[in-house]
Hints:
The complex is a heterodimer. Chain A is built from six helices and no strands. Chain A is mainly α. In chain A, helix 5 packs across helix 6. By secondary structure, chain B is mainly alpha-helical. The interface between A and B is large, with 117 and 110 residues.
Amino acid sequence: xxxxxxxxxxxxxxGLGISGMxxxxxxxxxxDLFGDWDPSLAxxxxxxxxxxxxAVALVKKRDRPVFGASFRWPTxxxxxxxxxxxxxxxxxxxxxxxxxxxxxxxxxxxxxxPSLVFVGAMVxxxxxxxxxx
Amino acid sequence: MFEHFTPxxxxxxxxxxxxxxxxxxxxEGRVLGISGVVGGCLGKPNADTGWxxxxxxxxxxxxxxxxxxxxxxxxxxxxxxxxxxxxAGLLVGFGTRMGNGCTSGHGVxxxxxxxxRSLVATCTFMGAGFATVFLYRTLVTG
Lengths: 133, 142
């Protein structure tokens, strides 16, 4: 699975790059709904969800994935304060920096200082969550 | 109006992202979320650490390929100071773990499964993002 995961990481990164989501300036352009709005991110979601929804419909007919023993579907359906609070914190951070986790990691590979600072702080934030959890 | 809008590359790139999450589902049976992959690497090593690390290595290798062949897609001048970016990173790291997902896990994979939980999370983080950019532009950059 290691090499397949590596390849899927490359594919994911290329998709992010072509879509322009590796540019925090473009992400902020999408989030600037009341300013000079750039709707591109919405179409990235349409493209990704369109393909993935088709895949979900196809795999639902199968008992198991090609390589794994079973499908590991998320089991939680509850909507609680942690879901909402976490999403609010994430959204504020996303709007402040223009990075979400994937584009942050991909653009950090270029050595861009804001991306490196973002990823370092994101990992720190994840570790803080692990400690206080 | 919409002078920065790039609909075709957005759709094409989005489809490739969806292909990656689709293959992860069809081949390995897993729902892909980047914050889960990164966060899952940070604890004690377990059976999932290897593939998660390999996926992150793939993201970085993809970043280098973009830098080599599509440099305009990874070259930017961000009008945010580094301390602001650092606070942003802390919030994204903490928030995505607290809320169990980010743009990929809740946004792409969750909405593809018609998960109400993910729909609520996605609307919430998008709303918070819209509000934050509006407030930042109004109060900080003027």
